[in-house]
Amino acid sequence: MILRSVMRVTVGRPRGGQQAVTAIHHIDDTVDELIERERALSALDAALRRSSEGRVRMVLVEGAIGTGKTALVWRFLEQAESSGVLCFGVHIRPDERSLSVDTLDRMFRNVAVPHLFRTAVARRLSALRDGCGTDGPTLVSQLTELAADLLDLAESVPVLLVIDDIHHLDTDSLHALLHLLPTASAGRVLVVLTADESRQPLDWRMPTGLLMRPNFQRVVLNRLSEDGARLAAARRLGEAAAEALPADLVALSAGNPLVLEYLSRAYEATGTGYPQGYAQAFVECLRRCPPETVEVVRALAALGEQATPELVAELAAVDRVDVDLLPLTNAGLLDAQSFRHPSAARAVLRDMPAGVCAGLHRRAALLLHDEGAPALDVAHQLIQADEHELPWASELLLDAAGEALALNRVGLALECVKLAGRAERDPVARAVVDARLSRLEWHLKPLAAARHVQSQLKDGAAGRLSARDTLDLAWRTAWFGRIDAVEPLLSAVGRTPDGGDVNELVRWLAFTYPKHTFSRGPVTAPPSSAQAEPWLHSASSLAESLIGAPNDQGVTDAERVLQSLALDHESLWSGETAALALLTLVYGDRLEAAVAHADRLLDEARDAEMPTWHAVFRAVRAEALFRQGDLPGAYDEAVTALAEIPVQGWGIVVGLPVGCAVNAAVRMGDLSAAKRLLGSPLPKSALRSRYGLHFLHARGHYRLAVGLPQAALADFLACGSLTEGWGAGGVGVVPWRTSAAEAWSRHGNPDQARRLLRDQLAMLPPSSGRARGQAMRVLACVSRDTRRPQLLTDAVDVLKNCGDKYELARALTDLSVALRQGGDQLKARRTARRALHFAKAAGARPLCDEAALYDQEAKAARLARDEDEKLSLLTGQEIRVAALAVEGDTNHEIAAKLYITPSTVEQHLTRIFRKLNVKRRDELPWQLDTWSA
Fold first, then answer.
1. Which residues contact 436 (CB under 8 A, 6 or more apart)?
2. What region holds the HTH luxR-type domain (predicted)?
């Protein structure tokens, strides 16, 4: 064995190819690194035995933060104390840069020691308090005398002195503390020190003579290798769980035992939440670091992606960032001066006192602003600091909001505008910021935007809003049903220099609220072809095409708009135009195109962080699916849309998804779901809007389904009353005349039903296949029996080309009944089978049951007919023999009743079996007794 003046035990993974040499253990086996840590404890035990034999020993346990030094030495202290050793221990806190009387007092307090020694310690500490403190010769003198007192005490009992984390002390205090360590070779004293790998290696700050003492020994705890980390996890979680550990969990630990413990604990508790454990471990390790390291890490976390060594150093007020980060870098918690996981940065900032954290972000904002950083980076710091008093804050925050919107980060833009609004003192500027804030809030939280409507109406009345802001306010006011407040806004738009044509807004409003008459009000602005809101013209044009009867030109215009439109965060009218274009395709029976465009807009709204528009587009998509006959798909889409934003946030538009979901539920046979949905809260003005048509129409069909035709008729006629100003328009929105005719028919008034249906068919253009097929089907129900099959056949021909599986199934079911009543049983059965196929595809359970019933009845009739054909092959005598056989008579009983021989009966039965294709008596058809009669 090689003898050295400094004996060393290295535990864990050796770094840099360094050889581990010790006079007690030579550890070079890394297969089971946890056992090596037990050997480190054994090394301390051996040192304690040597000191108990009368030789003073000193052991320095070193390693990075979290490698287990503190746990090791305090576990050793407890074991030594239980064996009769007199133990003193103290932990140097990170903020204790210089040695204090309090530190020494903590070391010797609460330990049962002889009175003489306690008196001596009290005298030494009193001298330090009354003298020149912990500086100068007095401190060295008193510590030297304390070391002598310890040697005297050790004559009667072995003494263990543990000083944990001595690296926190500055060089002068460290040199002074070393005078407390007994230097005599004879004495039953063991001194155990621990130190982290800090900014400066401890070797540079400790007296060389101490390091060269023959009684001085070093134990180094290194981080675990990947195999060692897995083994440690296995011991905590069990073999099976450790095998399933994600590879990135082990990699994230970087072999640090403390981090691995936190990660394993979090993984054990959640199965997936182990990054949270990493954040907790990081904060725990940071609390053990020197103040300079803490400040640098906080600066690093606050600056985030903008962190550079120069900016971090300036923000943390340090000279060398890399040096101050050494404790965490050596511990494997940082990777090239960056966090190994973002959860650590968030945890560091959360762990700070709120005021301190705000101050740090404020300084970071000033620093980044001075450095000319992008507005969004500076704004992020201002938001975190809740700082809006800086003279340049408002303008920068509004610029940052634009940058955030360009990145589709609406939430961040909203935070910027909120803070900018608090910075504004001028009423006009504040009104402009509030208008922008409400617009952005509506994209995310419509209800939050609704709360600002009243104050913005006051701003509009005071002339503080631009024409574009006024138009947006008019849109939101109409969305939430405040039609009483829209009229003054029309006048306000007309008075603005950039007001454009107020008629565009009036045209749109007339479509949204068909029963309300809006006037332009006085217009003082000169006529201009330019508009404050670029999408207003498209919206009003689409509204006008919807008001009129569906036509190819309107569909073409909608397609063109959808191909060129991109959602604009700064305009609510862009989303309104997209929704109107989609509805134009839906009402015009261009359902596949509507679904395709809706899918694209849903992706765009999701990427642009516009959940409100996402919900609206999903509701329109649900309506398209409903008109395609995909009832489960329509129901799921509509219900999902309703869940994306609160029901109250839908405003008047809630009628669209609720109506679609109710209609789908009724046709699927789920009346309880329909009833529940009809209880959704609707604004009073919703039933006066176009969206109220969908709700009223759906409620009418629910009432028909539960046997209330008169109440259903009231709902359908209310739809008609709402659209009476549209003339021939509105036929594509909801087929209220067809539905009202169905209600009249059930109410016993087929004449009124026929009148409505004739009106409906006269208004429909040739392209309205779905509505035409529906009307023809209901017309057949109120027509003569002789006309019914042809009308239903025509309805089927129309509906099979429009792609509505449900309406086609209904028409086929009715046609099957009509054919059966007309005597064409074979065709009726085939038609019923087709109806059943489409009813299943549509998910319409009641219609499936109805079609299946007709199919079964036709099948039973066919079987009866087949049996009759077979029985017609039998002679009269054979029928009488077979009938008696069905009743259970034997051959002799049959012969006696018919006055023939049993042999003749046997011959008859043989021929009967052959003709009817049966083998036994119990297979004979039961109809024989009827035939024999």
1. 398, 401, 417, 469, 570
2. 867-931
DSSP codes, 568-601: -TT-HHHHHHHHHHHHHHHHTT-HHHHHHHHHHH
Please answer whether residues 283 and 347 qualify as being in contact, where contact means their C-beta atoms are separated by less than 8 angstroms. Answer: yes
- Show the tokens assigned to 685: 């003005």
3-state secondary structure of 220: strand
Q: Are 800 and 770 in contact (CB under 8 A)?
A: no
pLDDT range class, residue 856, cuts 50, 70, 90: low
Query: Do 199 and 230 contact (CB within 8 A), yes or no?
Result: no
How many Å apart are CA 34 and CA 67, to the nearest integer? 11
AA identity, residue 414: L
The shares of helix, strand and coil residues in the chain, as percent rounded to the nearest 5, are 65, 5, 30
Percent of the chain with pLDDT strictly greater than 90? 32
More confidently predicted of 45 and 385: 385
Please measure the distance between the N-terminal and C-terminal CA atoms of the chain and give it in whole angstroms.
121
Nearest to 755 by CA among 768, 767, 745: 745
**pLDDT for 498:** 52
Query: Does domain 735-872 correspond to CATH entry 1.25.40.10?
Result: yes
How many angstroms separate the CA atoms of 268 and 234, rounded? 12
**Phi and psi angles of residue 682, each rounded to the nearest 5 degrees, phi first:** -120, 140
- The rounded distance, in Å, linking the Cα atoms of 439 and 437 is 5
**b/e 512-529 (16+ beta carbons within 10 angstroms → b):** bbbebebeebebebeeee
Tokens of 827: 């065709």
Q: Token digits for 65?
A: 């933060």
Reported pTM: 0.73
Q: Which fold has domain 874-930?
A: Arc Repressor Mutant, subunit A (1.10.10)
Indicate the angle between helix axes 354-370 and 309-316, nearest 10 degrees: 130
Strand 7-11 versus strand 57-63 pairing type: unpaired
Nearest alpha carbon to residue 352 among 316, 300, 298: 298
**Helices 552-564 and 572-587, interaxial angle, to 10°?**
140
Domain boundaries, the chain: 37-222, 735-872, 874-930
As a whole number of angstroms, the distance between CA 300 and CA 599 comes to 42
Contact 658, 680 (CB under 8 A): yes
Q: Give me the half-sphere count of Cα atoms (radius 13 Å) on the Cβ side of residue 583.
A: 29
Q: What is the pLDDT of residues 132-191, one digit of tens each?
A: 555 567 778 888 888 888 888 888 889 899 999 888 888 788 878 777 777 666 788 898
339-360 b/e (C-beta count within 10 Å ≥ 16 → b): bbbebbbebbbebbeeeebeeb
- Three-state SS at 9: strand
Q: What are phi and psi of 164, to 5 degrees?
A: -95, 135
Residue 827: count of CB within 10 angstroms of its CB: 16
Contacts of 909 (CB under 8 A, 6+ apart): 881, 882, 885, 891, 921
Task: Check if CATH label 3.40.50.300 holds for domain 37-222.
Answer: yes
What single-letter amino acid sits at 568?
D
